[in-house]
Amino acid sequence: MPGSDRKTITILKALLEAEDGFVSGNRLANELGLSRVSIWSRMEKLRDQGFEFEAVTRKGYRIVKKPEALSSWLTRAYLEDSTIDYELVFLSSIDSTNDHATRLLANDFEAPFFVIANEQTLGRGRMGRQWYSPPSYNLYLSFASTPNVRPDRMQLFTLWMGACIAQHLRNRLNLDIGIKWPNDLYFDQKKLAGMLTEARVDADSIRELVFGLGLNVNQVQDDWPADLKQSAISLREPYGRKLDLNRMAAQLISAISTGYETFISDNIRNDFEDLWPQLDVLQGQFIEAESRDGPVEGIASGLDNHGSLIVKTNKGKLVTLNSGEVHLKRF
Question: Which residues, including other chains, have CB under 8 Å from residue 18's CB and lie 6 or more apart?
Fold first, then answer.
């Protein structure tokens, strides 16, 4: 993680691993080649970020409180053992993580990198819709890269990244999370997350790519705006308790990074074909959709090789949708 204070992160990681136990200040000083005063000054820096520590003579230090809101130090400490070496840009508030990532790319910020925010004031979904992004409850992040791949390679990209994220959450939380084509994660017929991929194409190559994720993590039902109470859900609701936002951020950064690297290797098709039937929440459902040629009704029947949705109409005709709005038909 370029640009981070690795010695402070190493101190924090040691304290986290000790859980309720103490970590010797002498041990930390010897392992890191620092003085006890330097160890203490780094811990004071962490105190300013919302951490609380207990110090006991001849025992050392232990954590007694961690920040519940997004913390760059805590997320980086959870990532310390990973192989991720991308820059992480943490922001307390931003208009949109996708927009900020695009601005950084335009100013030649070295990619790949992540933008992670505690709050978005103008969070966006597909078709310019607003994404509800209050502070401290949920995750709002964007991953930016300069992949230099053919445009036709992008047809499965968002669905592949969604599959990687959904599979990680299913394994981690034992929740039956699925994907609603083309870009949403769902649980119990409610929206859990949205994805937004934006790209700049030069000639015959994708030069800049930004993948955005808004994941509802700790929002509680009573706090949803009235227009979202029936359609949105957070992980906290089915999981039954509050989740560690920073641990979740670290895990998703790893999952997204691994998914992207697999995508770049051009080796996703077999894995995607195995994963998709497990995750497709529309399969076999009667749906309504808007296509370029007008409204479509029928049974959702999987994807074609390009990631387009196949719909079998009432007349038995197979229609493929490249994009558009899809809703379950209500009877």
Answer: 62, 63
CATH number of the domain that residue 316 is part of: 2.30.30.100
Q: Which residues pair with 209 in a beta bridge?
A: 145, 199
- The structure tokens listed for 1 are 């993680």
pLDDT band at residue 28 under the 50/70/90 scheme: very high
Binned at pLDDT 50, 70 and 90, residue 331 comes out as low
Strands 113-117 and 139-145 come out as antiparallel
Structure tokens at 254: 């790893």
Omega of the bond leading into 2 within 30 degrees of 0 (cis): no
Helix (H, G, I), strand (E, B) or coil at 101: helix
DSSP state at residue 330? P
Residues 51 and 151 in one domain: no
Claim to verify: residue 60 and residue 80 sit in the same structural domain? no
Q: Is the pLDDT of residue 233 over 90?
A: yes
- Backbone CA torsion sign across 235, 163, 318, 292: positive
Number of Cβ within 10 Å of residue 15's Cβ equals 23
How many residues are listed for the chain in this entry? Answer: 331
Q: Distance (Å, rounded) from C-alpha 275 to C-alpha 303?
A: 12
Calpha distance 31→19 (Å, rounded): 19
CATH number where 87 lies = 3.30.930.10
Q: Per the structure block, which two tokens stand in for 215?
A: 């994941």
Determine the pLDDT at residue 126.
63
Q: Which two tokens stand for residue 110?
A: 């070295």
Strand, coil or helix: 177: coil
Q: If pLDDT is split at 50, 70 and 90, which confidence band does 163 have?
A: very high
How would residue 22 be classed by pLDDT, with cut points 50, 70 and 90?
very high
* Residue 76, H or E segment: helix 72-78
